[in-house]
UniProtKB/TrEMBL annotation:
One annotated GO molecular function: pseudouridine synthase activity
An annotated GO BP: pseudouridine synthesis
PANTHER family linked: MITOCHONDRIAL RNA PSEUDOURIDINE SYNTHASE, RIBOSOMAL LARGE SUBUNIT PSEUDOURIDINE SYNTHASE A
CDD domains assigned: PseudoU_synth_RluA_like
Residue ranges of domain Pseudouridine synthase RsuA/RluA-like in the record: 25-181
InterPro entries named among the record's database cross-references: PsdUridine_synth_cat_dom_sf, PsdUridine_synth_RluA-like_CS, PsdUridine_synth_RsuA/RluA, RluA_PseudoU_synthase
Top-level taxon of origin: Bacteria
Provenance organism: Citrobacter gillenii
Gene3D superfamilies membership: Pseudouridine synthase
Protein name listed in UniProt: RluA family pseudouridine synthase
Pfam families: PseudoU_synth_2
PROSITE patterns the UniProt entry points to: PSI_RLU
Amino acid sequence: MSTLFDTFIAPPCHDEIEVLYQDDHLLLINKPTGLLSLSGKNPQNIDSVHHRLVQIYPGCTLVHRLDFGTSGLMVIARNKATNAALCQQFSLRAVTKVYSALLCGHLSEDEGVIDAAIAKDPALFPLMSICAISGKPARSRYRVVERFNHPLKDGTVLPLTRVQLFPETGRTHQLRIHCQHLGYAIWGCDLYGGRLLPGTERTPRLMLHASELHFKHPVSGEAINAHNGSPF
């Protein structure tokens, strides 16, 4: 039985990967929206962050991933030892990640916590679902930056809230489904309600960007505080 994931073919991504920092152990990059982190099983989905970088930096491996539509900061390991050390930091939740997002609607609270377990649902694949019984614990914090009204081409006005999102766990689709659960989907999110409001059907991208990444350099122990401003 085929699934939505099996039939998905990523459109060509003509944007380049921006290397923000590199040394003998790791890379910090700015991933463009519309690029897979890792090549898919379908040979038509070969283009990805890893596929592009391994041709320039042989032996490099991914430590974490960003969704296809998400742009922003990723750290890439250049050897196995670095990968192991960085993966340990991620598993111990010693890495701080901050995302910028535009949410549909005006949030009533200035900040808050979303604590909702996330589960795989074979019937809905590739979507995830909120499930307190079978889900894995998932927790995200949010902070409002601004509320504003965005005029659309059809003359309607879309109320938006710019937020910073702080995932404390790293579940698949966590921020996207947590924002939907909160009642304010991320603008442009095709899986979790971000294209349902009038005028949002043809939003060019998912309005989610990995804007900050804080961790310790696995060799020097130096604090790495990476910042990359939101493109929207």
